[in-house]
Amino acid sequence: MKKQSKLKFGSQAKEGATLPKSPPKSPSKLIHGTASATSRGLHDKISKQEDDNLGLQSAHGTEQAGEQTVKGGKKLYQRQKRKKALQKSYGAKNRAQTTATTAKKAAEKVRDGVKALVSSITKNPKLWLIMVSLFLLVLICLSAASAMTTMFQGAVGQVVSSSYTSENEELIAVEANYTALEAALTQQIDNIPTDYAGYDQYNYNLDSILHDAHQLAALLTAKYQYYTADQVNDYLGTIFEEQYTLTLTSESETRYDDDGFPYTYTTLNVTLVNHGLEAVASNLLTAEELVQYEIYIETQGNNPYVFGGGTSNTAPSTDISNVVFVDGTRTGNQTIVDIALAQEGNVGGQPYWSWYGFSSRVEWCACFVSWVLDQSGYDEPVFASCSTQGVPWFASQGQWASGNYADIAAGDVIFFDWDGDNSADHVGIVIGTDGDRVYTVEGNSGDACKIRDYALDSSVILGYGLMN
Q1: Which of 97, 289, 355, 391 is the most exposed place for a label (fewest CB within 10 A)?
Q2: Rounded-to-integer distance, Cα 463 and Cα 410, Å
Q3: Pairing relation of β-strands 461-465 and 413-416?
Q4: What is the Cα–Cα distance from 270 to 204, expressed in whole angstroms?
Q5: How far apart are alpha carbons 87 and 100 in whole angstroms?
């Protein structure tokens, strides 16, 4: 008789201005008024006294002469004023006539030019064809320029809308945090016999604990556009719980020993289902966000190597038939090298990423290295990400050496940093060195397994994972 119980676990203007009282008089009126007042006052005063003093007659005459002078000055001023007004009027009229004449002559020139052009075209039809052709050519050039501008703007827009918007360091940090959640889940499963002691039997039915780093980045970018590791840390728990379902089911049954006495036999069934991030995206994203997610998956955010995705180098393999390898002080592992070399020419990496547990192609350089090490008898390391899994594992085991390390050996794992950001972008297996260059076997090198070589002091070599 069996009894079952089930437990399910998840992760977790100015003022004061005064106007004048009256406007000032014009200068001409002020002069006229002053002269008239002076002549009238002087004339009246002298006329009153001329009978009493004969001598004043001459003075009176002088006064009258002065008055005549003032009157004459007044008339002269008025004549000059009229003259100036006439001159001004004449000048304006003359300028207007000149302008009209100039415009008329210009119009006549244009008319004559047009007549001459029409006459030439009429007499020479080829000239007409040339002019039409030039006109059409200009139109075509303008249309092409407009089309190119539109196409360029559209292309830029497409690149921007299909690219990861967060900084590389944030993408990598998020990937590391999610990998840490998976590592904790692995540890949780490993500890089940201790945490749930006393069972007679433990049965395990476990999916692989893994994810595609680009799927995670695509999901988060579709959801948030730009984000930092701190901003999405809590949401990672939501994604994780959607991706993994860990179920513990206990069973008990009555059994009998050899003497026929009954006893209870207990079993703990451990089941882990990995639903995959694609299914998670379908559950968590809106229809519009899901469309954007698919675009990011297709383009890998226009940043395919941010998590360690290989290299686009499509050159043929390096010929090592005449290379003389130099041994160092450390013993190498030729088995690793032989297994890696036997994979040269594989395209697409299906044996390696499917072995790792992926159901479709991923950037598979790390899967290749992990597969080679496994085939060579090593249980560890096993990693799908260079930066968040591979390098940290070697560092944690005290088996990490920087890029200028001299005593490399056959079978060591070599990590590359293409963009100089101190994060691993690619990984391969060391064949050996001739003292000047290091020779490697790399998966996903132009989507194939290839032999490559680099100067020992190359800036793209991030460091080595030392196998022995």
Answers
A1: 97
A2: 14
A3: antiparallel
A4: 5
A5: 20
Torsion, Cα 255 256 257 259, to 10 degrees, reads 180
Looking at residue 88, its pLDDT comes to 52
- Would you list the DSSP string of 50-114? TTT-THHHHHHHHHHHHHHHHHHHHHHHHHHHHHHHHHHHHHHHHHHHHHHHHHHHHHHHHHHHH
322-351 pLDDT, tens digit each: 999 999 999 999 999 999 999 999 999 999
CB 417 within 8 A of CB 424: yes
Chain segment 57-97, per-residue pLDDT in tens = 443 444 444 444 444 454 444 555 555 554 555 455 555 55
Confirm if 362 and 353 have CB atoms less than 8 A apart.
yes
Read off the tokens for 235: 């949401």
pTM of the entire predicted model: 0.59
Residues 34, 40, 43, 46, CA torsion sign? negative
The token pair at 242 is 């959607």
Letter string b/e over residues 71-82, b meaning 16 or more CB atoms within 10 A of that residue's CB: eeeeeeeeeeee
- DSSP assignment of 141-173 equals HHHHHHHHHHHHHHHHHHHHHTS--S-HHHHHH
Other CB atoms within 10 Å distance of the CB of residue 380? 10
CB atoms inside a 10 Å sphere around CB 349: 26
Is there a contact between 216 and 277 (Cβ–Cβ < 8 Å)? Answer: yes
Q: Please, what is the end-to-end C-alpha distance for the chain in angstroms?
A: 53
Q: What is the DSSP letter of 225?
A: S
In order of 221, 419, 463, the CA distances from 424 in angstroms are 22, 9, 9
Encoding tokens for residue 116?
A: 């001459």
Enter the tokens of residue 28: 């001409």
Q: Residue 73 is encoded by which pair of tokens?
A: 């000055």
In the chain, the amino acid numbered 304 is P
CA–CA gap between residue 297 and residue 275 (Å, rounded): 18
- Which residues are paired to 206 by β-bridges? 272
